[in-house]
Amino acid sequence: MSIQRKPKTLAPAAAAAAEDAFIAGAPDAVPAPVVTPAVYEKGVPKGNKRQITLTIAPELLRKVDEVAHRTGQARAAIINMAVYHALEGDIFK
Question: Is the pLDDT of residue 11 over 80?
Answer without folding.
Answer: no
